Amino acid sequence: MLPLTLGWIACGVLLQELDLPIGHPTTGHVYRPSSTPVTIDQALALARLAGGYLVSIETAEEQEWLRDAFGAQPSWLGLEFPREVWASGAPVDFVDWAEKQPGLEDRMPFTAAWRDGGGWSEASNDPEFHLYHALVEFDHAPPDGPVALPVESVPEHRGALLLVVEGLQAADLEDGKSPNLAAFFSGSTWTFHAAASPDGETPSGWGMLAWALGPRKSHFVSRTPTAAWISTPLQRLERVQPAHATAWIVDDATLTTLLVATGKTDIRMSDARAPESRRARAIEEWLASPETGCAVIGWTGALGGSSAQRKKALAALDAELGAVLERLRARPAYAEEDWLVILTSPGAVETAASAAASKKTSGFSVPEVPLVLRGKTFVPGELRTAVSLCDVVPTMERHCGMPPGPSWLDGRALQPMSVALGAELLFNGGAESQVGWRGREGTLVPGWRSDGSVAVDVYYARGLGPAAPGPEHRGRNHFSGTQGTGRGRIEQIVDVSGLATDIDSKAVVARLSGWLGGWAELGHEASLELECLNANGKSVANLALGPVGLSERRRELGSDGGKARTGLLQRSGEQRVPAATRALRVALVLSGPGKSEGAFADELSLVLERRQ
User: Coil, helix or strand for 354?
Assistant: First the structure.
């Protein structure tokens, strides 16, 4: 069998070979190491392009065989903490951590490595970004002979600007009093409902924007952010595409120290007392570069203070943003370039009265901020899908041609929705796009708009166990109620206007399904709802599944020790989609006496089918 040659472009073309395969004598799995050490991003790309995954060591016997077969050369492992599952999908029942490893414990994500001298250690977030071999595992033998695989191409004409303004509100964009902000907003894709940190703290929002992690995992909390060696999008871009220019231009010393602690970032600005002219010069200098790239420009504390101070600050900010966008458009090659410009805020600025009013009108209490996106792939208009600040990083990475990020990222790339008959329309219906925490701390569920009372939890023995009645092909996570309230709700809106012709012919049926249930004798219930909405957002038809509560579980699952069994029951139903429907709203409701933590759900699904 010939070596498998893989390639990707970073600065030029880098070719990487996987050595000849060695098969395990009993499992039938095949292993192929890279011929030279690579970065974690390159290792993941190699495994993906080859059709395998980074090695998953499930037993001590397998590890001993691997050491005999491949020696002790440092290698990346297919284990990304805190997902307690191998890249193969197998549970992590065997570990061999070196002394004092993993040093980050349960605080930060990382990818494990197998180093010289024995034992595993955290590695991908090391500030030195060490190089290790990629040991790729295959469930079956790779095909014989040379394998033709696509080369990763870097879209050199693409660039991204993330403009982050503390204190930015929807009214600043809508009222027209700030002409540059209004002009940018009017031709963009936008939402005023991007979920920020549930605690409302600006540092937490910065962590979400920097790392695509939920606020409780970013460690940008309590206004005292702590150092964390997590790859920001610019640092990943620097490693994968070193020819691209990158810049953090942030007027806060603490933020700058954390955000640009590593990497080759071109411009760093950390003097909070610096005059606006210095920031303007830094931005102009970066935009004058002939290369496209990725930059984050932040205005901390820009719109605070009294009403009069805020009005003056807003006028200055509007002028500065206008100059940034004008300088961008003045680039000599701008017409041939593809720039994504994102404008948002790291946290909501609201009074107790405005927060109460918001919850009264919308039913949601998680702080929300404006998020505006402008680029060639985004159609101007309201972005109706549920988004959070965690989605910004994956969106920038996708636009800049980055390979898919690590699986521990909580966000997803925002892109124009392509709705097709027969396709799954719900994002994150299995709760797998966020790391589940047994403490049920998460209140931001990727892809869903939440009232803060539904969390992502893991299957574990003392709760909803991995072997409890439920879906056969379940993931690691499930939806769960929380301890703070007796009713939790998440919802997701799917824009189906692209299927208007089929829908208006009354030939489309919506098929809704999910696994719903609860814990033991607790009187908690789970239900799943579907609403068909017209262009004005008015409900024109609905479908409800459940509720599934104590009596349903006792009747269908039986009892265990005199108590109703803990588990999930499948429910499904169909609804013909009325003519003029342009969106579908799916809502999961978890409720119970006093608190909703005993209500569970998983594997939610929505599919449209054509029926005569």
Answer: helix
For residue 538, give every residue at least 6 positions away whose Cβ sits within 8 Å of its Cβ, in sequence order, or none: none
* CB-based burial, 26-58: b 16+ in 10 Å, e otherwise: eeebbbbbbeebbbbbbbbbbbbbbebbbbbbb
Q: Which of 408, 467, 382, 330 is nearest to 191 (CA)?
A: 382
- Say how far apart CA 189 and CA 184 lie, in whole Å: 10
State the Cα–Cα distance between residues 294 and 284, nearest whole angstrom: 14
Between CA 384 and CA 381 the distance in angstroms is 9
User: Which residues, including other chains, have CB under 8 Å from residue 204's CB and lie 6 or more apart?
Assistant: 196, 197, 215, 218, 220, 221, 346, 347
Task: Please say if the pLDDT value at position 328 is more than 80.
Answer: yes
Pick the CATH number of 158-399 from 3.40.720.10, 1.20.1250.20, 3.40.640.10, 3.30.360.10: 3.40.720.10
Cβ atoms 83, 59 nearer than 8 A: no
Check residue 335 and report its DSSP letter: G
- Residue 156 vs residues 12, 159, 294, 329, 333: alpha-carbon distances, Å: 11, 8, 11, 17, 12
Tell me the CA distances in angstroms from 432 to 392, 396, 556, one per residue in order. 19, 21, 27
Which ranges of 298-416 does DSSP label H, i.e. alpha helix?
307-329, 352-362, 392-399
pLDDT digits (tens, 9 = 90+) for 389-407: 989 988 998 888 877 667 7
- Answer for the pair 392, 162: CB distance below 8 angstroms, yes or no: yes
- Tokens, residue 8: 């990707």
The pTM score is 0.82
Domain residue spans of the chain = 4-138, 158-399, 449-610
- Give phi and psi for 276, each to the nearest 5: -55, -30
Tokens of 434: 């966020």
Task: Choose the CATH number for 4-138 among 3.40.50.720, 3.40.630.30, 3.30.565.10, 3.10.100.10.
Answer: 3.10.100.10
Q: What is the pLDDT of residues 450-501, one digit of tens each?
A: 877 888 888 887 788 888 999 988 877 899 988 767 888 999 999 998 899 9
CATH-assigned architecture of domain 449-610: Sandwich (2.60)
